[in-house]
Amino acid sequence: MPGHHTPLRRLSHVAATLCCSAVLAVAQAAPAHAASRTVHFEYQHIWLTPEFKTGIRGRIHFTVKKCDHPNGDMTVLLRRTDGFNYVSGTEKIKCRAGRTAKFEDSPAGTYEFELGKLDDYKFFKGTATYSFNAAR
């Protein structure tokens, strides 16, 4: 026969479950913030950035800040590297300050950029910044 404490125990279990569910929902819906990394590149044919992890679906941009061959064409390839490695997008831009390769609506995951160009025996040297949404 249940005692008079049984409803209180059930109520405390329900309250604990609701509290844990609320904490989990807040943690899963953690807001994102913009993150960026500046890299120095020097390559003749292909160069890779370090991997970076995005927190939510969103934009990933690669912007040239300085380049010693401003009229040269460079291919900016975005590759997803967690799970299956696959090319998420590619853009051809001039290696000139202010030029940006934009990849919109990319799912959360781990990525890297691959910079490429024709092997014309010239070295591209400069700096760039890539920006993305990272979890807080």
How would you describe this protein?
This protein has 136 residues and is of the alpha+beta class. It contains one helix and nine strands; from the N terminus they run αβββββββββ. The strands form two sheets. Strands 2, 3, 5, 6 and 8 form a five-stranded antiparallel beta sheet that branches. A four-stranded antiparallel beta sheet has the order 1-9-4-7, with no helix packed on it. Residues 13-30 have low confidence and may be disordered.
Helix-strand layout with pairing:
Layout: H1 6-28, E1 32-43, E2 46-48, E3 52-53, E4 58-67, E5 73-80, E6 86-94, E7 100-106, E8 110-116, E9 124-135
Antiparallel strand pairs: 1-9, 2-8, 3-8, 4-7, 4-9, 5-6, 5-8
Helical stretch tally? 1
Structural class: alpha+beta
Distance between the termini: 51 Å
| Biggest sheet architecture | 5 strands, antiparallel
Strand content: over 45%
H-E order: HEEEEEEEEE
In helices, the fraction of residues equals: 10-25%
Notable features of this structure?
136 residues, alpha+beta, four-stranded antiparallel beta sheet, 17% helix
Concise overview:
The protein is of the alpha+beta class and 136 residues long. The chain is built from one helix and nine strands, in the order αβββββββββ. A hairpin with a 5-residue loop joins strand 5 (73-80) and strand 6.
